[in-house]
């Protein structure tokens, strides 16, 4: 599948994944004929490298077009299209236009491996950009081939893997959740989890560790199920445990139902916090049960309306008009992931190689996604010592997110 659109270990769902380095596919050599001032003089040549020609650089995009994750993919790809549209309109990177080929990972580990092989072996992609993660087998394959892999998780192992979010603090966890809870008066927490959401248990474990580090006791864990779940019974467990905080990763409506039932039972909940799930479209249909609850976000939320957000929205309107609501988390994730890939190309210079790209991007110690991250991240540090998030609160009318200040809430990696 091709598009002309401008457009080790890590995790897919709950799986740990490995990623690393390169076997180039021979393509045409690159010649400096660009109008870019940094381009070499005409006739100067670059060594042959996969995905690189004198006129363009082609990379691969790996995301779920079918399967359980497909509902999120349309906006993600649109975000990539918008970011590439903006850079190509400005002349590209070192005089080359940047385009991509894409494959469907089918929301499965096997599908991810097939897609990654196609992008590298048949399409000759310079690098692979993914959504929230790449399946374990695909990651191992990319590691063996030395292909740069760009996603979200800053802490993912593998010298060839890059990301910008260390919200969960990697395997060690971060103090940020406990510090937030304690600062809002919580002392005893109930964690909600869902077996049908693969990451729910893993995030729940990190939440529990963070809360305990912040002197918040975890007094119960409630399992949500798609069928037969009783919010009133869950609320009774919150009351019986003497909890004043509810957190965890379950469907947003389920969280809202439990919170509403708990309040109806007269339980004084001081903190209702979801560590993931923020998206402006959540409140298109009001969910009264969410009123007053918090979301922690690993980027600057849309409601902050910064110049960086305006650049994103303008580019989405121009280069991805098929997305009626560009204010979507997955769209911005696509934009930021593409931005990180482009930063690597810029740093790799006029004659990029996969190995040179990896080395150059690893040297960046203050990446902030053009101002869209709460605080800059150090791409050289897999186990980053600090994790910073933004905090939003659902209005009492449950019709808007309200940005909490200060904009960045930071915590330390737990030992």
Individual helix count? 10
For the record, the CATH class of the largest domain is Alpha Beta
Largest sheet: 8 strands, mixed
CATH homologous superfamily assignment of the largest domain? Response regulator
From N to C, what is the helix and strand string? Answer: EEEHEHEHEEHEHEHEHEEHHHEEE
Q: What is the CATH architecture assignment of the largest domain?
A: 3-Layer(aba) Sandwich
- Please tell me the overall pLDDT: 87
CATH topology of the largest domain: Rossmann fold
Number of strands: 15
**What would you call the structural class?**
alpha/beta
**Approximate strand percentage:** 15-25%
State the helicity in percent bands. 25-40%
Q: Termini distance?
A: 45 Å
Number of domains: 2
Please provide a written account of the structure:
It is a single chain. This protein has 415 residues and is an alpha/beta fold. It has two domains: 214 residues, Rossmann fold, CATH 3.40.50.2300; 153 residues, 3-Layer(aba) Sandwich (Rossmann fold). It is 31% helix and 17% strand. It contains ten helices and 15 strands. Strands 8, 9, 10, 11, 12, 13, 14 and 15 form an eight-stranded mixed beta sheet that branches. A five-stranded parallel beta sheet has the order 4-3-5-6-7. α3 links the parallel β5 and β6. The relative contact order is 0.15. The N terminus is likely disordered.
